[in-house]
Amino acid sequence: MLVLGIESSCDETAAAVIEDGRSIKSSIIASQVETHAPFGGVVPELASREHLDRIVPVVKSALSEAGVSIGRLDGIAVTKGPGLIGALLVGISFAKSIAYVAGKPVVGVNHIEGHIYSVAFENPPVEYPALALIVSGGHTTLFLIPEEGKYAVLGRTRDDAAGEAYDKVAKLLGLGYPGGPFVDMLAAQGTPSAADLVFTLPRMDTPNLDFSFSGLKTAVLRFVREKGIDPVAVGAEPGRIIKDLAASFQDKVVRSLLSRLKEGVRRHQPRTIIIAGGVACNRELRARSMSEDFGAPVYFPSPKLTTDNAAMIAAAGYPKLLRGEDDGLDITASATLKIENLSLEGYEAPLKARYKH
Ligand code: KG4
Ligand code: ZN
């Protein structure tokens, strides 16, 4: 089954053709990073315009690289949210037009569900129940997935997303945008304990597994001000103190993510653990989670599938298309689309009994 995926929720225009949900025939990503970098973040109006310019050539390249004509497609999957409304509408309108003209089924896909399916390509099939930690620029959420397509939220960030905290800290230090890769690289050259006293892990003794990163970001800001650190000078040549600061910040973020994940694993004994979203590129998060004994395998997407792409959208649409779903012309964009379709309330106890192993 050949599925064309289309993604345009933020600052990447992407299209991909995948076969049978697990094999990538092509994956084209046109990044707008250079357009938004001078502003230190995504400018929605510029994003929509650039998607409009790129969508046709990107989809054409995906089809030609896969050697597939529109007529041979079995269906189309397109991101319908969450994301920037104007940006989403470009992908949705284009996907609907192709589907209408070619008489193909089209399904709307949740972007976060796409990130969850980004592990479909280079790992064994996911076994359920699964836990998914989605860490990106816009989201930090821990999901329980008792069976395919069913999502309950175990915890989410109460303020900044993990990637957002990385981006803000990088901006404070004049390190460029998006900041995660820069902080990650510097952290590898620093010693976390050197600046350790400055940052403490947020305490969240609540039954749910929520995250919080804004306190950590504020602590970095205070540190930068107290030490009189000049971001312009740092951007040119980061010194020892910046490397230690990056290492300390990263250590706290990763520890905070893993502590919630471990507690989720203890409570729900999953058969697979998924860590995905842009921050899943992080060297430290990968290394530490691979060395943990969770009692279940940890699946990461490969680095090129970690940030936004359309292969993951096609993979998430595949089971829907396989079931014969067709959203047709009814797909609408939703900036705040949720994927949770299960409440944890009253679900935890039966779940434990059902899946004890
Ligand atoms: O999933 P993604 O491409 O877009 C969203 O849906 O948000 O994630 C982008 C985020 C950015 O905040 C970026 O700084 C972060 O992922 N990121 C990283 C790393 N690479 C990308 N954060 C930490 N370490 C990295 N190596
Ligand atoms: Zn994303």
Description:
The chain is built from 13 helices and ten strands. By secondary structure, the chain is an alpha/beta fold. The protein folds into two domains: 2-118 and 304-330, Nucleotidyltransferase, domain 5 (2-Layer Sandwich), CATH 3.30.420; 125-300, 2-Layer Sandwich (Nucleotidyltransferase, domain 5). Helix 3 (85-102) links the parallel strand 4 (75-81) and strand 5. The chain binds 5'-O-[(R)-(carboxyoxy)(hydroxy)phosphoryl]adenosine and zinc ion (ZN). Zinc ion binds next to helix 4.
Features of this protein?
binds 5'-O-[(R)-(carboxyoxy)(hydroxy)phosphoryl]adenosine, five-stranded mixed sheet, alpha/beta, 10 strands, Nucleotidyltransferase, domain 5, binds zinc ion, 2 domains, 357 residues
Estimated structural class: alpha/beta
Number of domains: 2
Q: What order do the helices and strands follow? A: EEEHHEHEHEEEHHHHHEHEHHH
Strand content: 15-25%
**CATH classification class of the largest domain:** Alpha Beta
**Helical run tally:** 13
Strands side by side in the biggest sheet = 3-2-1-4-5
List the helices and strands and how they pair.
Blueprint: E1 2-7, E2 12-19, E3 23-31, H1 33-36, H2 44-66, E4 75-81, H3 85-102, E5 106-110, H4 111-117, E6 130-135, E7 140-145, E8 152-156, H5 162-172, H6 180-187, H7 214-226, H8 231-236, H9 240-268, E9 272-276, H10 283-291, E10 298-299, H11 303-306, H12 311-322, H13 348-355
Parallel strand pairs: 1-4, 4-5, 6-9, 9-10
Antiparallel strand pairs: 1-2, 2-3, 6-7, 7-8
Bound molecules: 5'-O-[(R)-(carboxyoxy)(hydroxy)phosphoryl]adenosine (KG4) and zinc ion.
